[in-house]
Please model this.
Amino acid sequence: MRNVVLTRVDERLIHGQVMTSWLKLCNANVILIIDAGSASNAFLKRILFAAAPKVVELQVMNEADAAAYLKEDSPAGEKVLVLSKTPQPLLAMVRSGIEIKEIILGNMGGAPGRKHFNKSISASADEIQAFRDLVDAGVYVYCQMVPSDAKEDVKKLLK
Model:
């Protein structure tokens, strides 16, 4: 399996906080974005590649390709940061046999059909169920906006 050093749900995908905090914290040299919409849209992919640091390899994949990629052996020294807009692709990874020990929940903004939990997190019924299924599968899901923030257990939000 690939050497995944951090997994995060954040609808913004690549943005300043990921680049200045999370990437440095885990010393990742590969960013894997699991998002079918971005993977199939050449314009969105160009934007993501433009936003990623040139010293980091960027992969943008749909769920099936990401699962196959993550099941491959890591080259020596590889450290992968996994990003997804929503929890469903990460649940698909777990269901396909990829081990994910913990997920950091970042920004999921308000939208029609989403319940608001705090200033940065809103989720639809399907997203809430995906988080519950991840927790039931033994994945520790917690909120932490930047590395210095205190962890907030998502189980409290899902009650």
Q: What stands out?
A: Residues 125-136 form the longest helix (12 residues).
